[in-house]
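Listing S7. Sequence submitted for prediction.
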Amino acid sequence: MNTTQSGALGEDAACRYLAEKGYRVIARNYRKPCGEIDLIALNKKTLVFVEVKKRASRAFGGPISAVTPSKQHKIALTAQYFIKENAPKFDSIRFDVVCLLPGELEHIENAFIPRRGTF
């Protein structure tokens, strides 16, 4: 299995998990020149941008360590595009990360706050 296939399986698992928690996934793999957002969901009246990170082990810091400040900035810029293009109804926004390891899923709500001036 290549990394693209593995990533898709990870996103599928994250979608199932979020659906069980009452989220409604409204977009997957939303891409713009500045970046990509794995999942975009609504949780009640909160618009949630979700980065899914799958790793084989916790070596090198595990999945969350891959969500660097640079990656966070790209996600935030891409989120701006989504909001402008789709004008979804929401009261607040949030940036979450779903971390996947073999046999383990961790959902980190409010995993990061975008750089000042992005939102």
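Caption to Listing S7: primary sequence and predicted structure tokens for the chain studied. Helices lie at 3-20, 69-86. The chain has one domain: 3-108.
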